[in-house]
Structures are given as structure tokens and as C-alpha cells.
Design goal:
The chain is an alpha/beta fold and 417 residues long. It folds into three domains: 167 residues, Molybdenum Cofactor Biosythetic Enzyme, Chain A, CATH 3.40.980.10; 77 residues, Alpha-Beta Plaits, CATH 3.30.70.2860; 156 residues, Maf protein (Alpha-Beta Complex), CATH 3.90.950. Helix content is 39%, strand content 25%. It is built from 13 helices and 17 strands. Helix 2 crosses helix 3 and helix 8 packs parallel to helix 13. The two termini are 46 Å apart.
Length: 417
């Protein structure tokens, strides 16, 4: 089954706003075996919106329109859909009442133009929106399915999950699908593809998608068969061959970020984590604390950006920095050991440190942009890793440094380094 996604909004055609909803929808649809064959962004123009909906319904069974459901005159998705389908728009009194109650709960009186949000396509089902004031719409006929969904991510995501996915599950498909996700760190996209390409190319009953981020690769293996069990077996068989080829670089057999995997390992071992970050500027701490429950194992951290902070806050020797420099393996080692000590000492804590040159250009000591030294200190020893990340700007260096530091911690906790 195929789908087309149409993102509506002139703001999405400017550099100021990105269409992130399409990424979410593509991922959720893929889980159900629905292939997105086209995505397009359309400005706030009635004729263009209607034309794209018509084209989408000619190309695919499912068309999803995001945005353009607000109360203002430039919110035209309802009118564009009505024109494309050749149906009218009907004001639903129960939606008007709901909108009035919604605004009353905000301590405000509903403006007259908000009544436009109660206009529903003839033959469509309104989709409740507990997170905003724009109801969605679900229209199905012999030509397929059309969904009108609100633009704000905090509204569209829960609406699609709670309202649209159950309806999509009732659409008959001759195939069943099952997806297995592998998360990989420590290898580039081309390296991963070179290793696993022969595996997925040899299995016609499974599709493999490779998604690359800074130092992080996601492999989505989707099996297709007449039954769900058979599809699951196909996907797992392909994923197992890939995992065997990739070895210790596979850190998760599910769509789970590295920081969550590291958190599980720390919790299982009863260890506290202390951080000493320089070039990453707190990025590792942010990722660690993005995980619910991280207070169980994260003691805290230092953003010791300057030499003064490294000496006064962490207790790194000034003479060591003078001899080796701030971006050096001995300095990274000392930072990690001080972070470990601050987090509880060698017996019950582990320390992670990162120091490097984010750029642009070399630092005052002549170290090139992208040079990063990182270390992990535990009770037994301190391991140090030196890497030069070439290409890209400051943000890429920081993202890669954080990813590789977390992966170094994972490998240390597993006894791999």
C-alpha cells in the first residue's frame, strides 16, 4: 500500500521552519507496511492544495495533509480538500460547542473565525484534538483515504497514533509486515552498507532502510509475508545475519538511543556517572538526562570549558595542562578521573571526559578542528581514545564527540575495551 504526504504552509517554504511531521508520519506508516512514495510542501494557496490532493489520490491509496486547519483565512486545507473531492463543508454544532468549551477552559471567549475549525468535509469523520483547537478529519471512499491533520507536532503525533492508526489497521492488505531495528555506533554509513549490503540484497522478502546520523546508524529491516509470524521470522533472520557481520558495533536490537542503553548498563552495575565536558559543552549531560529515570545513575557533570575551570573545578593539575595542553590524552585522562571521584569515587562511579577543538579552524596550540580526546575512568583503569573528525562545522564535531564518548562508555561497561 502506498501513501502521499502533503505538508501545507507557506512558512514551510522558508528557511525558518522545517517539515518534521513528514518524518514522523513516514516512520509510523512504514511500521504498517505503507510506503510513502511522495512528499511535497505546498504554500497557502487554495488551487495548489486542491491540485496536489487530486494528484495524490491518483497516485496512492492514502493521502495525508498536514497543517492548514487553523482559524485564519490562509488556513485552506479544508477548502482545498473539499474542492479536490467535489464535496461541501458542513459546520458541526457539536464541534462549535466543543470549541467554545475549549476556549472557556483557557479563560477566553472564542473568536468568530474559530468557527471555521468546525467545518467538516461531507462524509468525513472528525478526529478529536485534546492538545489544540483544530480537529482532524478522516475521509474514505472508493478512491482511497484522505486525512487532514493539524500542523503542530504536539497535536499531530498523538492524533495520528490514537485516531488514525486504528483506522488504518482496518484497511485490508494481502501482506503482513514486521520490522526489526538495529542501532549501530562506531561505523560510517558506507562501512555499514558495505558489510550488510550483500545480506539484504540476497533476501527479496525483506526491505532494508539505512538511516545515518552523527556517528549513529539505524538499520530498519522489514519482512513481508502472508502472515505476521512469517514476516517476523524473515525480518529477524536478516537482522541476525547483519548483527553477526557488524559485531560489537550493534548496541541495540530496538529503536533505542545510545544514552538509554548506557543508562541501563549503569543501572544494572549500580554505578554513578560523572561527566567532565569541554568541547561538547554539556551535550552529553543533555542526552543522558533526556532519559527518564536518569537520576538513578547520573550524579552530575562539569562543563569545564576553560583551563581555569579544569584546574579549579575539576582539580586537574595546572602543570599537566601546561606540559601537554588542554586538548591531549593526559588531560582527558585526568578530567575523567576527577569526574569519577566527584561522582562517588573509584568503587562506585565511572567518569567520562571529552576535550577537543570544535572549530572553526585550529585552536591556539595549533590543534586542528575536529581533534577530540575522550576518556572513561572506572575502578580498574582509565581508557583514553583520540579521534579526529574531519569535515563539517562546530555542531557536527560536538555531536560526533558526544556519540563516540557515549559509545566508549558502553564498550567499557561491557568489557570490550
Amino acid at each position: 500500500m502506498e501513501a502521499v504526504i502533503i505538508a501545507v504552509g507557506s512558512e514551510l517554504l522558508t528557511p525558518a521552519r522545517l517539515d518534521t511531521n513528514s518524518l514522523f508520519l513516514t516512520e509510523r506508516l512504514a511500521r504498517r507496511g505503507v510506503e510513502v512514495i511522495r512528499k511535497i510542501v505546498v504554500g497557502d494557496n487554495l488551487e495548489r492544495i486542491a491540485a496536489e490532493i487530486r494528484r495524490g489520490r491518483e497516485e496512492a491509496h492514502i493521502v495525508i495533509v498536514t497543517g492548514g486547519l487553523g482559524p485564519t483565512l490562509d488556513d485552506l486545507s479544508r477548502e482545498g480538500a473539499a474542492a479536490a473531492l467535489g464535496v461541501g463543508l458542513v459546520e458541526q454544532p457539536e464541534l462549535v460547542a466543543w470549541l467554545e468549551e475549549r476556549f472557556a477552559s483557557f479563560g477566553r471567549k472564542m473568536a468568530a473565525n474559530n468557527r471555521r475549525q468546525a467545518l467538516i468535509l461531507e462524509g468525513a469523520e472528525p478526529l478529536p484534538n485534546p492538545n489544540g483547537t483544530a480537529p482532524g478529519q478522516y475521509f474514505a471512499d472508493g478512491g482511497g483515504v484522505l486525512m487532514l491533520l493539524p500542523g503542530p507536532p504536539r497535536e499531530i503525533k498523538p492524533m495520528f497514533t490514537a485516531e488514525c492508526e486504528p483506522r488504518l489497521s482496518r484497511i485490508h492488505s494481502p501482506y503482513q509486515y514486521s520490522t526489526v531495528t538495529l542501532r549501530v555506533s562506531g561505523l560510517g554509513e558506507s562501512d555499514v552498507d558495505q558489510r550488510v549490503g550483500p545480506i539484504y540484497s540476497a533476501e527479496s522478502r525483506a526491505d532494508t532502510t539505512i538511516l545515518a546520523g552523527p556517528g549513529d546508524i539505524q538499520l530498519h529491516v522489514r519482512g513481508k509475508a502472508a502472515t505476521a509470524d512469517e514476516a517476523r521470522q524473515i525480518a529477524h533472520a536478516v537482522a541476525e545475519k547483519m548483527a553477526a557481520e557488524l559485531g560489537d558495533n550493534v548496541y541495540a536490537w530496538e529503536d533505542k538511543p545510545l544514552e538509554a542503553v548506557v543508562g541501563d548498563l549503569l543501572r544494572e552495575r549500580g554505578l554513578q556517572l560523572g561527566l567532565a565536558e569541554s568541547c561538547t559543552g554539556g551535550l552529553i549531560a543533555e542526552r543522558i538526562t533526556d532519559v527518564p529515570g536518569s537520576s538513578e545513575y547520573f550524579a552530575g557533570g562539569f562543563v569545564s570549558y576553560s583551563e581555569r575551570a579544569k584546574v579549579l573545578w575539576l582539580g586537574v593539575s595546572a602543570s599537566l595542562i601546561a606540559e601537554h595542553g588542554m586538548v591531549s590524552e593526559p588531560t582527558a585522562r585526568a578530567m575523567a578521573e576527577r569526574a569519577r571521584d566527584h561522582a562517588g569515587g573509584p568503587a562506585g562511579a565511572v567518569g567520562v571526559a571529552v576535550t577537543g577543538v570544535a572549530g572553526p579552524g585550529p585552536d591556539a596550540a595549533g590543534n586542528p578542528q575536529g581533534l577530540v580526546c575522550m576518556a572513561v575512568a572506572d575502578e580498574a583503569d582509565t581508557v583514553v581514545f583520540r579521534r579526529e573528525f574531519r569535515g563539517g562545522g562546530r555542531d557536527r564535531v560536538r555531536q560526533l564527540a558526544a556519540q563516540y564518548a557515549l559509545d566508549l562508555l558502553r564498550r567499557r561497561l561491557l568489557g570490550l575495551v
